[in-house]
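Researcher: Next entry in the queue.
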Amino acid sequence: MRYRLRTRTGFTLIEALAAIAIMALAGSVMLLGAQTSLDATDDAANQAIAQGICEQVLDEIMSKRYMDAGGAYNQNMLVAGATETTRLSYDDTDDFNGLSVQPIRDTYARSLGVGNDAGGTRHANFRVVDGYFGRWRLRVDIYYVSSTDMSVRLDNPPVPAGNTLSTTSGYRAAEVTVEFQNSDGSYQTLAKGRRVYAYVPPPT
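Model: Structure for this entry, 204 residues:
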């Protein structure tokens, strides 16, 4: 009996190796789960930021006139004028059509998260990390929609900005998309926002 107890006081080499292998496998599974959770949290944060950008740009678009002063509400070209080269100079909604910027910039053409929304620079403690938005792209599409079904886009497939449209109406849609550029050069959509708005003639 004493001999048997002495021979069973520890693990054999095979048992120890098996225990180490099980612990390593369990640890790798736990690390994988933690990484997946962190990735999901990061994706959710990026999508929330992107949705906020969409809403902010849509608000900016909606703050402009429906059309150029003296222009036609159903003009068949939606494009910025020759002197309207920056968002700060945009004065009507169709000026935004075809806007595409990467990295994303604010109204004053400052890198997003750096400017103070007044043309200056915000305090260093409140700036985003350098290069955070470097692979983010903002795209804006302005187009006419059907007056009877505003989910229907007129001139579909889309006509490039500045080209003549064949169909117009008194209703337009502003569509803003925020995308992230992957390492292979492709883009994934983080958020998209759309608003439909109408031309209201001035009182006579």
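Model: The helical segments are 2-7, 13-62.
Researcher: Noted, moving on.
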